[in-house]
C-alpha cells in the first residue's frame, strides 16, 4: 500500500483529459492566418493534448488558415503538418513533433524557345527557397532533384524573359519550359536566378555571345565567331588579318574545334581571313582554355565546342545577306510541325569576279590569263522528335577554298638570237572540310540522359601546277618543256561515342562515356613529270601510302557541391592509341576546385593532364599558304603530353552587370615537334618525315585579366594578357630554350557596343599586341646554277640563287600590332520582315601591321633587304540583310 498510494495521488491531481484523448477525438478549430504553434496551444488548452517539440528542429512559424468542425484529431493533424514538413507520433500521453524526412522528386525536361522550339544551352532552373538550381546541358536538357514541397521554379536564359513556373504535382515528372524572347532591353532576366561566375566550379572557360558577335566590327562585312574568340584574353590571332587562334602559347593543331561534336581540322577560309563557321547557323560557342572537363580529350591547348541551331519547329523563316565580299542565305522551318525541323545555310565569295582585271594586271597573267580566288560553304541540320524521351539530329557541313592563277603569254628571249616563246603556267591551290554527325538523345529516367553520336570528318589540301614552254619560230627544232607537280594531304576521321549525363541531386552532376575514332592520314604526295626535246620522262612520287590509327577513350567526371562555399570537380580521361602495331596509353586526371572567399569572391584552382596523338608538320618560315600536314604519332615520334596548373579569382556583382576575373597559369609540354631545317619545303612531306623533325619540350605561362559588362544598352569587355611561350630541342639553337613563334608578351583587347534607340547599335574594337618572334639568317651565299633559257627572275642575276644560313631561332621580333575597328548596325522591324544594314571600318587609322617578312633584292644597292608585307589597310565595308 505504501508504494501504490503515491501513484494514486498523482493520478488524482492530473487532469483526467490527459489520457482521455485519442485519434478519434472530435476537434473544432476556426483560425485564420495563424502560426502553427497557435494551433498547438489551442489543442492543448481546449482538448488537453500536450505537445512536445524543439523549436530548433521543428519550424512552427509557418502560417495557415484552418476551419474545421467536429473532425477527428488525426485528420486535423494531417492538415496542419503534412504539407509543412512535420511528422507526429504519440508517446505515452504526449504528441511528439519532429521534422519529416524530406521526400524528394526529380523534375526534368528541356528548356526551349517558345516561338521556335530551339533548345537553349546553359539555361538556369532555380528553386529560390532552397537557393539551389541547375543548368541545361548542350542539348537543352535539365534534371533537378528537389523536395516534394517545392511549389515553384524560376527559369531564365540570357535574352529571354524569365518565368516562374508552379509545380503542383508531388511526383517526379518530365516538364518542358518554354521561354519567350525579350523584346524590351533591360527586362531580360530576374537577377537572382542567373548563374554567377563565382558560383561555377569551371574556370578558364568563355561563352561567346552570338548576338554580340554579329554586332562587333566586321572585316569586309562578314561577322566571324573566331574573331570574337581572338578578342578574349589568352587567345592570339597569329598573323594580322587571320582568323586562326593560338591559345596560351600553343600551336594551331593543339586546338580541338568541334562542330556538333565532330572535329574540324582547318577552321579558316581565304588564307585565314575568315573562319568556316557561318554565324547564321551557330547557336552556342564555348571556349575552354584550360581546366578541361574530362569528356574532352585529344588536344593540348584548347577546346572550342560549337553547337548548330536545330531549326524552327513551328514557322518558316529565311535570311538573305549581301556584302562587299560574300553573300549568304539561310532558311529554317518545320518539315512536320512540332515534330521535325530543318535549317540550311550557304554562302559564297565573289572577290574573284570583282578583282579579275586588277589581278591579271598586277600578276602579269597576260591577255588570256585567269585569276580565281573564292570560297563557299554550306550547313544542313535536321531535328526530329520521336517521343518525349527520344530525339534524332542529323547535321552536315561542307566547304572549300580555291585559288587559280593561269598565265598565258608570248615573249621574246633576252638571250642570244631573237626567238619567240610561248609560255603557259597554271597554279591551283585548294583545301576543304567536310563534317557529318548523327546523334540520338534518349532520356532513360528523370535523372539519366544519354547521347549517342556517329560522325565523320575530312580535311583535304591540294596544290598542283603545270608549266609548258615551247619555241614558236624554230620549225626544225622544237624546244619543249612540260612539267607537272602535285602535292596534297588528306585526313579522314570516323568516330562513334556515347555520353551519359546523370544528376542524382543538385549537389552532384556526373558525366561518363566512351569514344572510338579511326584516323586515316595521307601526309603528302609530290609527283613530277618532265617532257623535253629528248623525250625523256621523269616521274617521281613520294609517300604514296596511307597510315591509320585507332584512338579509344573512356571518361568520368563528377561536379560535387561539398557545401555552399566549396565545389569540387573530379574527373579522369583514359585513352589509348593503336598505330602500326604500337599501343600508346594515357591516364589524364582532371581537377577543378572552387572556394568562396569573403565578399563573394571565388578562389578557383584547376589541374589538367592532356595527351595528343596527332601532330602537325609546320614550315618554320613565314608563309600564308595552308601547307601544313597532319600525321599520326609513330615509334620515332611519340604523342604530345601537357600538364597545366591554373589559379584565379572571379566575381560577378550583385546586380549581374559586371564580371571580373584574373587567372594565372603554367603549362608544360612534352614531345612537341619541329622541322630541323628552318625552311622545310614540300619535299619534306615524304615517308621519311620522321627523320626530318626533332622532338622537344615546351613551356607557357602567364596571367589573364578580364573585366566584362554583360547587361544594359552599353556592353563590352576589356581583356589583358601577359604571357610567355618557350621551346627547347636538342639539335636546334644549340639545345638552348628559345621563344616560340607564337610568343606574344602583351595583348590588350577593348570591345564596346552601345545601343542607340531601338534601331541603331554601334561598336568599337581596339587591340594591341607585341610583335611575334622572327628567325633571320645570319649569312647567305650564292648557289651557281645553269642559266635558264627562260626569262630570268627579276630579283637575281642569271645563274645565281642565294642560300641562307641560320643559327639561332627567333632572335628578333616583328613590329607591334595595333588597330581600331568600328561598326554600326541599323535594324528596322516590319510586320513580316526585319531589315539590317551594317557598316564597318577595318583598321580605321590605316596602321601598317606586319603580315609576314621576306628578303627582297634591291637593284640599286644590289643587296637583299628585309621587307615587311602589310596586306590589310583601312577597309570600309557594308552589308545588307533581310530576315523574313
From TrEMBL:
- Superkingdom per UniProt: Bacteria
> Where does it localize?
Cell outer membrane
Record membrane topology: Multi-pass membrane protein
Task: Say yes or no: keyword Magnesium present.
Answer: no
Secretin/TonB short N-terminal domain ranges (all copies)? 49-100
Pfam family of the protein (one) = Plug
Q: Which InterPro entries match?
A: Beta-barrel_TonB_sf (IPR036942), CarboxyPept-like_regulatory (IPR008969), Plug_dom (IPR012910), Plug_dom_sf (IPR037066), Secretin/TonB_short_N (IPR011662), TonB-dep_rcpt-like (IPR039426)
What Gene3D superfamilies does the record tag this protein with?
Carboxypeptidase-like, regulatory domain, TonB-dependent receptor, beta-barrel domain, TonB-dependent receptor, plug domain
Keywords of the record = Cell outer membrane, Membrane, Receptor, Signal, Transmembrane, Transmembrane beta strand, Transport
Checking PANTHER family in the record gives: HEMOGLOBIN AND HEMOGLOBIN-HAPTOGLOBIN-BINDING PROTEIN 1-RELATED, TONB-DEPENDENT OUTER MEMBRANE RECEPTOR
What is this protein's record name? TonB-dependent receptor
* Species for this entry: Chitinophaga caseinilytica
